[in-house]
Design brief:
Blueprint (H helix, E strand, L loop, with lengths): L1 E4 L1 H13 L5 H17 L8 E5 L3 H15 L5 E5 L6 H13 L3 E3 L7 H9 L2 E5 L11 H20 L7 E5 L20 E5 L2 E2 H4 L1 H7 L1 E5 L5 H5 L5 E3 L21 E5 L6 H13 L4 E6 L4 H7 L4 E4 L15 E4 L9 H9 L4 E4 L2 H12 L10 E3 L3 H9 L15 H15 L1 E5 L3 E5 L4 E5 L10 H15 L6 H23 L4 H22 L5
Parallel strand pairs: 1-8, 2-3, 2-5, 3-4, 5-6, 6-7, 7-9, 10-19, 11-12, 11-14, 12-13, 14-15, 15-16, 16-17
Antiparallel strand pairs: 1-10, 17-18, 18-19
Potassium ion binds next to strand 5 and strand 6.
Length: 534
Amino acid sequence: MEKAVSAKTMAAIDENSQEQYGIPGIVLMERAGLLAWKILREYINPDMSVVFLAGGGNNGGDALVMAREAFMEGFDKISVIACGSRISPSCATNRGIIHSLGLPFVDIGTEEPGASVEAILREADVIVDGLSGTGLSGPLRGNAATLVSLVASVRKTSREILKETRNVYVCSIDVPSGVGDDVPASAPVMRADRTITMGMMKYALLLPAFREACGELSIVNPGFPPIVLDAAQDVLHVADSEDFSLRPLDLSAYKKNRGHIAVFAGSEHYSGAAGLACMAAFHARCGLVTLYADKNVQPLIARENPSIITRTISSGEIASIPLEAYDAILAGPGWGRGGDREDILAVLLDTASQLVIDADGLHVFASLVKKDSGRAVTHCPLVLTPHPGELKILYDALPSELRKEDISDASPCHYKDILTTMSSYYQAVIIAKSHVTWIADGSRVYVVEGRDPSLGVAGSGDVLAGTCAASMAAHATDESLAASALDAVLVHRNAGRRARETYGWYAAEDIVTVLGNAFDALAEARKGSRGIRR
Ligand SMILES: NC(=O)C1=CN([C@@H]2O[C@H](COP(=O)(O)OP(=O)(O)OC[C@H]3O[C@@H](n4cnc5c(N)ncnc54)[C@H](O)[C@@H]3O)[C@@H](O)[C@H]2O)[C@@H](O)CC1
Ligand SMILES: Nc1ncnc2c1ncn2[C@@H]1O[C@H](COP(=O)(O)OP(=O)(O)O)[C@@H](O)[C@H]1O
Ligand SMILES: [K+]
């Protein structure tokens, strides 16, 4: 699994490479600039006008190396706009070279950019963003912040007012300037079409709120020894299809050993959510699904979904259900929050069965936790699947001493800490759903890039919830819950991609139709990766 690191860890990698392995900073910078230029060069031509924005730190130094490369390659419409007062030694060396080569160079120092700088930006076809990198502290301030908003206005002018007649391509070096580990999610940042990051992926680039500012992401290694990169601690694990862990089933498998899940879902106006979750479970290879629903809902769901075993349920009857017989239980999709829900969920939380709580179930869970904080640390193997709004509700239910900042505006490091804290406090795996989904299991945090708006459709979360329960039922009990959660998120993500290819835009039931193929493709590839040939 690929790893993502904090800026602090990256700085330690940098220091280690220089101190222990004797690789001078200026050598790393030269390679960083050259490799970034090589990538950018694939997208641009020498007849384009390229503006290099270079702050006073090493991020600016990287941009200056790129400007020099552009010059050497015969780009003749190059401008460098430099800013900052504290200039790092390697950046100063590169500024000196740019001067002696006679490249157009405007140094605004700490002054605000004037009309001439704005005019240069307006003429740009390509903007290389080297204002700030991993050395940023707090939200971007001063003239660097003004330059970021000027670039935003140039992009707006060229894209929206001139109707795409002139496009500006923004390429950020290492991170879009303004993006940083301790920067709140709402801070203004450079919006890039491409970000070329150095050495390793950074946490900050994967924060849902910052991810789209990065555009396409590439990683280059400016020369950090692999042994130093491999030793990085305190990482995020960036998971992809190859990290799916379920294998193809034994050919003798039968409904009774393909997992039996119980689903508590559906209410008068949301019976569809129950159907989606149950059907998703079948398409995620589950053998048997029993739905417990209210009396007025059960016949409706039974009629529309003949494969599901349906039972009616009320809080008085819950004690008589053999809950431990199920391989996993799902509670919450379209369930409603009133009536007997708290009583039922309280019983489910007290069983030894694996439990996934989604949607309305999360509101009910938060309410139970608020009433009885001990409840949060005494239950079964648990997965919680909040979307951003539900995540806030779970966060608000934490004891006040564990709540520090507003979770909706959390900085990357804080987001990671919050998820880890919540996961430890609730003793649950948390799947924080979004276009970039973070999964926390108390000690590790995994990230899955989804980034496909077609999957953000009504009922998509219900499909994930059913898939997750099926995945929990399929995993051996000694395997980690995080592996079940990860598998579910990957199947759901890949099913969304298939549905997009098949249908273009689609409804949640269409995800279900391709879920089985997505599942098989992942499981088959997993078989291949273990070197088994048939
Ligand atoms: N050996 C190295 O040093 C290498 C560094 N690399 C580059 O160097 C970068 C890190 O360089 P630095 O540590 O010098 O720092 P940066 O260049 O990322 O940023 C520091 C600069 O930003 C200013 N700054 C900090 N916080 C600010 C704020 N809130 N508002 C406005 N300005 C602010 C500082 O005064 C300084 O000029 C990486 O992102 C990467 O691009 C790469 O070249 C790889 C090798
Ligand atoms: N832009 C996007 N790219 C990829 N996945 C997305 C995007 N937007 C939402 N999703 C995914 O879609 C699902 C939506 O879940 P949720 O909001 O609970 O939907 P619902 O409540 O309608 O069932 C989540 O799994 C989320 O990760
Ligand atoms: K940058």
